[in-house]
């Protein structure tokens, strides 16, 4: 009777602290989410197939992500470009009497203080594509303005102007120096990079669609402050300077006009140009950061920003338990990359009683959610389970001769 509790009629089985450790794997695919509730695969919730009990650890062991990111997008706020014309080619000073050239001079000269702006197409560029895009957008921006000016003041010249438009800007990529060069065949210009100059004209970071929703998680960032930072500029306005016709002495440029990439085509004109002070940066993000509520275990530093906190304390503005895994992006668009065996994992002591639902977010270091579009991804989680077992002791006796 000593083996029975006084109030119950069944024996008490003591806890033997015996456990069977089991590794259970769960495959999660973003396409299995509720697409109506979570349209963006970068952030969703999903219910697991069963309750996972007494979870000692959770680890990311395998993944497959699409590499389809946009290095330039409204979400990143790096589509806007702004410039001014600083000195205009004067045809009359060079003996040119063409009415169209005189009208173009008058239109640009009367608008010297104006900051012209445009946005590039979002997506992923190689350097040559970016140089072509900037050349065409610079010329198109002035063509649009001059067309409006001629319509008002010289309507008879509009058709003649439309046949060629404004075509004096040239942007090329120096593949040896890995820098962009900006030139104009006849006039001076200034590329606007100074934030104080842009506040009044809503350029660069504000030259975009309303992205308050998709940018709600983004942290302030000093390094990626707009399109010019990716093109190799610092936060200072960059004025062009007149000089001898610039020339490259290598590669394909030798076979294109003997290396001269900026040649004046107006009588008496002098070219003006500038080179971006730094190399281009078109590579895009190096890592995805996976957050899973309740499983985040990696501390992370945060981008420096000017705030009351950073100005008055020496403490870090980093985040504790910021993410669950850090996933390298090993390919450029468009591709898909696979990898396995992440080092970091979440350890529970004591084991977590139950895990059934996961809330997942895939973001960049600055907090912006990754926009996967219609691409899906999958990953494999390892659950380490501590299943309690009864202690079993068996005594086996044998009879001689059996």
Low-confidence stretches: 196-211
In total, how many domains does the architecture comprise? 2
Structural class: alpha+beta
Cα shape: elongated
Give the SSE string: EEEHEHHEEEHHEEEEEHEEEEE
Which bin fits the share of residues in helices? 10-25%
Q: Radius of gyration, Cα only, in angstroms? A: 32 Å
Quaternary structure state of the chains depicted: single chain
The CA-CA distance between the termini, in Å, is: 36 Å
Number of helices: 6
| Mean pLDDT value | 85
Please provide the count of β strands.
17
Q: Which percent range describes the beta-strand content?
A: 25-35%
SSE topology sketch:
Elements: E1 18-29, E2 43-67, E3 80-87, H1 99-109, E4 116-119, H2 127-153, H3 158-162, E5 169-174, E6 179-184, E7 188-191, H4 195-198, H5 227-231, E8 238-239, E9 241-242, E10 272-275, E11 287-292, E12 298-300, H6 308-312, E13 319-323, E14 325-328, E15 335-340, E16 345-363, E17 378-389
Antiparallel strand pairs: 1-17, 2-15, 2-16, 2-17, 3-4, 3-7, 5-6, 6-10, 7-8, 9-10, 11-14, 11-16, 12-13
């Amino acid at each position: 009777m000593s083996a029975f509790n006084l109030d119950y009629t069944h024996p008490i089985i003591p806890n033997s602290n015996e456990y069977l450790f089991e590794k259970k794997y769960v495959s999660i695919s973003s396409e299995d989410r509720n697409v109506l509730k979570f349209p963006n695969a970068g952030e969703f919730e999903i219910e697991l197939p069963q309750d996972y009990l007494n979870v000692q650890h959770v680890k990311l062991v395998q993944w497959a992500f699409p590499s389809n990111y946009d290095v330039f997008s409204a979400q990143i706020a790096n589509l806007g470009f702004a410039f001014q014309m600083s000195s205009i080619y004067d045809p009359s000073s060079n003996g040119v009497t063409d009415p169209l050239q005189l009208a173009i001079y008058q239109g640009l000269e009367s608008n010297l203080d104006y900051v012209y702006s445009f946005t590039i197409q979002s997506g992923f560029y190689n350097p040559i594509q970016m140089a072509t895009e900037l050349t065409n957008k610079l010329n198109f921006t002035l063509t649009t303005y001059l067309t409006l000016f001629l319509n008002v003041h010289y309507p008879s010249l509009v058709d003649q102007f439309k046949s060629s438009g404004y075509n004096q800007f040239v942007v090329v990529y120096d593949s040896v120096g890995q820098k962009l060069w900006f030139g104009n065949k006849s006039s001076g210009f200034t590329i606007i990079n100074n934030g104080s100059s842009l506040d009044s004209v809503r350029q660069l970071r504000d030259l975009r669609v309303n992205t308050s929703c998709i940018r709600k998680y983004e942290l302030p960032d000093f390094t990626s402050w707009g399109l010019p930072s990716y093109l190799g500029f610092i936060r200072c306005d960059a004025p062009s300077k007149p000089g001898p016709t610039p020339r490259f002495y290598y590669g394909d440029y030798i076979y294109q006009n003997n290396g001269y990439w900026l040649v004046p085509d107006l009588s008496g004109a002098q070219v003006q140009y500038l080179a971006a002070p730094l190399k281009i940066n078109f590579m895009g993000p190096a890592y995805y950061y996976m957050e899973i509520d309740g499983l985040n275990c990696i501390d992370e530093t945060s981008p420096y920003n000017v705030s009351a906190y950073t100005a008055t304390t020496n403490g870090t503005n980093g985040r504790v338990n910021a993410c669950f895994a850090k996933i390298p992006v090993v390919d450029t668009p468009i591709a898909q990359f696979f990898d396995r065996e992440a080092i970091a994992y979440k350890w529970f002591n004591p084991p977590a009683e139950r895990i059934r639902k996961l809330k997942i977010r895939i973001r960049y270091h600055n907090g912006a959610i990754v926009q996967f579009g219609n691409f899906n991804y999958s990953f494999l989680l390892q659950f380490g389970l501590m299943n309690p077992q009864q202690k079993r002791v068996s005594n086996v006796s044998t009879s001689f001769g059996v």
